[in-house]
Design a protein that fits this description.
451 residues, Elongation Factor Tu (Ef-tu), domain 3, Threonyl-tRNA Synthetase, Chain A, domain 2, Diaminopimelate Epimerase, Chain A, domain 1, 7-stranded antiparallel beta sheet, Ser-tRNA(Ala) deacylase activity, nucleic acid binding, tRNA_SAD, alanine-tRNA ligase activity
Length: 451
Amino acid sequence: MSKVYASAIVGALACQKDSYLKTLTTKVVSCVALTVPKPSKSKSKVIPPVETPRYEVEFEDTILFPEGGGQPSDTGVLHVIESDVTIPVFSVRRDGLVARHAVPEPLTPGATVTMNLTWGRRMDHMQQHTGQHLLSAVLDNYELATLSWSMGAGVQAGGDAILNYLDIPRKLTNDEIKSVQHEVNEHIQAALPIRVVVPESLEDGNTKTHKLPGDYDASKGVIRVIEIGGEEDDTSSKELKSKSTRLDHNTCCGTHLSSTSQIGSLVLLHQIPHKATQSRLYFIAGDRVPIYMQQCHTKLRSVNAALSCQMADIEANLTRISLQVRDLTSREKFWMSQAALHEATVLREKLSKSKVAILYLPEASLDFFNLVIKELGEEPLKQATVVLAGGAGKDGGAIVVAGVNVPDIVNEVLKFAPKARGGGKGRWQGKVNEWESGAVELLVEHITNLA
């Protein structure tokens, strides 16, 4: 017996029938409590936020799109009519053919709610998603299939999270990038129509059902095909019209714009190698373009101020600074090796007269101590032990113990740095997060007396 769905199925949701619907009155079908993980005391694990979703709700219909097709889920707000309570919807997920809404409070089955969409988030998602369809369609003309794609989280996430990318079989040349970007924006300016088509049959050979998720029952669901361009294209440019006749025809569950003009613009950014021969091409579209431009301009102005130069001179100044840093790094390595040689010589002299010696340098790093051990050589450490300690106060520092009787000497060191953590075979390396007041001086005195 086939399952009867009490709610609209994914593929025929209100949000998929009308991407511009911002509010909807509907009823609660079911509400299920979720198992919420207990807050972890471990610093390495993220503690769940206060507003962790605790219930999943199924409605008769929804204007909130469940995550799918590379498009993140919508968010929104519910107004419960009977109780006059407002509840946020954190996310929506697809469970087979059912859309389940994550909320912080339980809802009673049968309750009437007014659902309000977070429109800015939806519009941004549609600009990026429809932009990806258009970009992929143009890349198809270069015999470059879209292997996968990912939508950036958005402006609120900060940093590079604003960027989208798609993976293609090979890297584009600079000329191809210019050409592809030009063609995409030409189609945007042409205001090509975008339609959702539900094919009468899946056996016509034109609908690629292999792209459907494995848990989506195509026999009971609704297969949606997104078409860009075609017969309804009334652009005055015959050349563009011929290029754009049914420019795109792909199965997709996402929400889309009704015209390419609403994408606004699309910019190709940079590429990075991916897997063996593939290329990951980054892009942004819609309102993210001016926002990203403003962010970049603000950062460039900050760099201008830091370098005390004009924008045109930034690259030359950075090249000069890079060369200076490379030269200073080389000089640092030279003088570090000379200092390590000197300290190793002093330690070798001490170890010739005693079984243990200590070197404490507040500014020394673990790399420097390893150089000292290298310069000291193996022979002195066959009969004696050396302790190297660095850092000061709250900044902490490194500790190295090498030679014979390492475990015993480490135990002596830990008396003055009980919170130090480290390990190693033959040579113990550790880190002190903070030196207690006077601890270093007492350690030096104690190790010296052991000699």
